[in-house]
Amino acid sequence: MDPYDFTIPAGTVFRIPEIHTGLPDACHPCCTELDEQAHAFARPYLVGYFGDEDRADRFLEQGHAHYACLGYPQTLDDRAQAVANSILPATLLDDTFSKPGLQGDLAALRSHHARWSAVFAGERPPQDADPAYHFVYDSIQACLPFAAPGVARRLRDGWQDAADAFLDEAVHRHHDDTADLDTYADRRVRVHFRVWACALLEFSLGIDLGPLADHPLIRSAQYHVIWNLALANDCYSLVKELSAHEATNTIIELMRHDGLDLQTAVDKVVDLLHRTEQDYLRVRDEARTTFAGNADVAAYLDGLGYFITGNLRIMQSSSRYHGLDHDGSRVLPGPVIITSMPTVHTPREQFRP
Asked: In the chain, where does DSSP find H-type helix?
């Protein structure tokens, strides 16, 4: 079986159950300005990367920059724009690994990964390099004046770990590998930017956890939260990923490795998602007791919870997952039809009627 031929027939219907969270929502008070400035910062790079304004504007209309306000609502004012300007570069890094012409070509992807590694090591991209490299490089540089040395190192390590994970997933896909759920979960939390997203939380709060960043309780809380984010993503992104010939999705993995039918796999993912929130709460409470009196750890643990609520709101509303005509309203539980949809890389002239 060609690993790039995996699909679910168009017209297949599955149902997304109710996905709920008991955690509080929050939003940065300057969200409108932060979103606008993040878009203004990103647009020239995106026009250069995609080669036209239409695809750049469609990318912005996905609304992912707003995650900075929902997922990092307590960001200090002096670095709020640097955090907001970091979200879209991370989203684009993900998309570059499935760009037509690169997807499925391991030699090209390894070369692409090496260029990313140079960026994360602090090497300024050549002037004529792909604008995506400049986009990420400039967003990293904008954070450095505010970052403690240890946090800056973890941010760079996080970018590198995500790129390593994207390349690893491409290799697994190329060889048509599947994995048991625990192994797959370990891979997915890396693909979902665990190290970087959690370092960005330290940065946003103006704290440096130092050696505690690697404490087993802190890492466990991170793991459960980022796994929750990946599972929520997988419920709402399945149609998009099938359209882009991607396979990094727990629903697809359960169908391929465990032989589950589509609806059973969806239901299992939703059950896992709800359990990961409870796992996070259990570890958070244990960590609060262990580190009683440490205000930085307490703020960090609470900050992880906003990842869950912020991510869920983006997943339920973004045109990235629900089609170009989606109006940004929250998608409610109910039936979803498998159908081809344009990806961020699809020129408008190639849209299907």
From this structure: 31-50, 53-61, 67-71, 80-96, 106-120, 131-143, 149-174, 181-191, 194-205, 216-243, 250-258, 262-290, 295-315, 319-322
